[in-house]
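Entry:
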Amino acid sequence: MSQWDETFDLVIVGSGGASMCASLLYKSLGRRALIVEKQAKIGGSTGFSGGVWWIPNNPVMKRAGVSDSFEQAWQYFESAVTYRGKCSSDERRRAFLTSGPEMVEFLERQGMQFKYADGWSDYYDDLPGGQPRGRSLVAQLFDVNELGEWKAKLSMYPGMALPMGSEDFPTLFMAKKTSAGKKMGLTLVWRLLKNKLLGRDVRGGGAAIQGRMLQMALREQLPIYTESPVQDFVVENGRVTGIVAMRHGKPVRIQARDGVLINAGGFSRNREMREKYQPKPNAWAWTNANPGDTGEMIEAAMKLGAAVDCMNEAWWVITSLAPGEKLPEGAVNPEGVAIPFMHHLDLSLPYLIMVDQDGRRFCDESGAYMEIGQRLYARHEQTGRGIPAWVILDSRHRDNYPWGTAQPGKTPQSWLDSGYMKRADTLEALAKECGIDWNGLKAEVEKFNGYCRQGKDPEFNRGGRAFDRAHGDPTVTPNPNLGPIEQGPFYAVAMYPGDVGTAGGVLTDEHARVLREDGSVIEGLYATGNSTASVVGRCYPGAGSSIGASFVFGYRAAQHAAGVAKQPA
């Protein structure tokens, strides 16, 4: 029999939102769970995120008067998530769709304050079962000062902290164009002033989710160890029964009577794993993932025989870089932490196209960001001239909308001096400056401008979905996402397939149990989040798909480990 230094019912590796959800459930069942985090900060990828859950058929959207059902959600899932690997089996799909609403109700009872992101459409809302008003939830704004001394331990995205949710940014981007945008801008200024006067630090996004999750965990006195990296699993008679973690410089053997749950993120920050598994070219400097995404727990599970899938996939978000793949001014915070510019909302707006080095478009620029990354890699594989791609901006885009940290109409001279953003009076001169084939670009722009005039993009359906239009400019007609490229000066920026985390990992079943290649279960070992191959496979069906699935399967893992799991209907 092993000698244990400490004993718990469930040990959870990683401190993201799903970990706290599982731990809270365990506490509600009269059991003890321990969260073990290798970093000094608590919150993992959830804290770094935009702070959104995608949970079909959830009670919050229903209270807002939006109808949904298991049947409708299943129809959409079947039509959008075409990948049918083991990670997205019928059993796992059913488990996600049936347990999601239950998980939301549980967290509400624990104190989570959800808000329906009304209008944040499913990303493929035009498919059968798609919901134009969306199935996504965000957390109500949260004052992280309520955490007291624990605030310093909360993992938060290192960019500018704003008292607004991710769902508000499309409106804010219209501050120069619409009355709603102007109102949102004034609201933001008022909130910032109010917070300063009252000594608050109110935040949205991942900080709102994880701040409140941490507050709930502290209220329930859930044990959390930080700066305690896991060295190994303890296996007895073929079952995972505990871990060995480093605590205060010494190895500590911690028993997990019911099992171990891995929720330790992916491998975006692991150079060797990226080189081995991810498509080429890639670089860890392109990522915006949590610094703890170093993949060692995936590798540890693989040593026990865990099967993996989708290891060449990531939650892609296009990133812009200067020559030599350097970060431009504004993409490093005052503490020196890199925060590469991620682009989605600004690509959705009119007066912009994205092309390869042959001057050809390859995607719906306003579409789902994960798909844009996939299409960029596909184009590069076909031609060798996809990465970097180039965004071409008409002057009206620069005049009216933000880009990176630059406000409308204000382009930092340093961007132009460094070559991060290129400017020319003519498209031909701009193409020459960027190394883009001029004949290809000329033909593409002429064709695209024709699409803008008729208001339809027959090639890529830009502006054809509610999702596209929700992030467009409503003052531009007949299509809020289409504006011609014809008014100089023109601008160009080099674009790369960045990410906010990897999307591949260990295979799990409907109870989040880790599986071997032959489908057998590694007893006592569970996993969720970016440590796993996701139930949504190679698709991102709606805002918050990764966080939503991580919470649901963390919840289901705790249920199964505690012996109260239900078989999905």
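The mean pLDDT is 96.
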